Amino acid sequence: MTDPEPDEPDGRRRRSQDSRIRIVSAMIELVREGDISPSAADVATRAGVGLRSVFRHFNDMECLYREMTELIEADLRAVAARPFKGVTWRERVLELIDRRSVGFDQIAPLRRASDARRHTSPVLQDDHDRLTLALRELLRMQVPRGAVDRPTFEALELLLSYEAWNRLRVEQGLGATEARKALRVAVKALIGEDEGA
Length: 197
Prior knowledge:
It is built from nine helices and no strands. By secondary structure, the protein is mainly α.
C-alpha cells in the first residue's frame, strides 16, 4: 500500500494564507517607509508575489487599506487594554496621554496613509469614524459622570486626539517627551489636579 498523497487543498490554503500575510506586511512596510499611497505593483514587488495575487486576495486597494486600518485598531486596543496605575480619574486621564502617545506614534505612518485616501473611500471613512468613537468611549470610561461639563469633556477629547498629537509631533516639531509635557500642561489646566499632586 502506498502512502496517501498530502492533502493538496490544505497546502494550497497555507500558501494562500502565506501570500496574504506577505501582501499585508509589504503594504505596511512601504507605508512605514513613507510611501502613503503605494501602488498594487509596488506591494506585489515587495511581497514577492504577482500582481494578480494582490487582487486575488484583495478585490481592490481599498480592501488592503481596510486590513491595514484593522491593524491600527489592534495596536491601539493593545495599548488601551493595559490596566491603569492611576487611582483617581484625573490620574488616569493624565495616564491616557502617555498611553496614547505611544500608540499614536506606532500607528502614525499607517494613519497618514489612511487619511490620504479617506476622502474618496467610504470604507476608510467608516474605519476612521469607528476608531474616533472608540477613543472617545475610552476617555468617557475614565471621566466619571458629572465630573466635568460637556464643553470641558469635548476640549479634553480634542487634547487627547490623534490630530492634536500629530500636530505637536509634526507641525510643531516636538519630540515625544516634549509633546507629552505640553499635553499634560493643557490637560491639567483644563481639569485641575488632585489635592496633594
